[in-house]
Amino acid sequence: MRQLWVWMLLMALAFVNYRCHCCLQEERSGLLEIKAWFSHAGAGYDDLQSWDKEDLNCCNWDMVECDSTTNRVIELDLSWVNSDGLEDLYLNASLFLPFKELESLYLSGNQLVGGLKNQGSLLSILFSLHIN
User: Can you tell me the mean pLDDT for 5-21?
Assistant: First the structure.
C-alpha cells in the first residue's frame, strides 16, 4: 500500500513539474494582446498564427524565446509582421510592459511610427531594440 502512495505522489509531482514548464500567464496574455494589436491593424495573421490562446506554453510559439530557467520571455522577433501593411502603425509601447526580462525586441520592417518617444521606462528594461 505504501508503494502505491509513493507511486501516486511521484506521478502527481511529475504532472505538476510538466505543467510548470510554461510561460507565465501575464506574459502569455501580453503576447495575445500584441497579436490582437497587429491583427486589428490588419497585419500579422500568418506570422502570429502559432500564437494560440489554447496553447499554454507560449515559449514554443514562433518568434518567442524564453529563458530556460525562469520561462520568462527574453526575446521577441516581430520583424516584418506588418510588411504588407497598407499604412503606418503607431506603436503602443505599453504592450511590452508585461515582459520583465525582455532583452531583445526586433520590430524592423513593420512601418512603425511614433510610440517610443515617451517610453523611457520601457526602453530602460530592454537590452537591445531593433527597429531598422
Answer: 60
Provide Rg for the chain, Cα atoms.
18
Write the DSSP symbol of residue 60: G
pTM equals 0.72
Q: Are 81 and 43 in contact (CB under 8 A)?
A: yes
Q: What is the pLDDT of residue 6?
A: 67
What's the CA gap between 32 and 14, in Å, rounded? Answer: 28
Listed by start position, the domains of the chain span 23-130
Confidence of residue 45 (pLDDT cuts 50, 70, 90): low
At the fourth CATH level, which superfamily is domain 23-130?
A: Ribonuclease Inhibitor (3.80.10.10)
Residue 82 near residue 43, CB atoms below 8 Å: yes
Give tens-digit pLDDT for 57-70.
999 999 999 999 99
Residue in 37, 32, 81 with CA at minimum distance from that of residue 61 = 32
Cell for 14? 511529475
Contacts 24+ apart (CB under 8 A), 120-124: 122/93, 122/94, 122/96, 122/97, 123/93
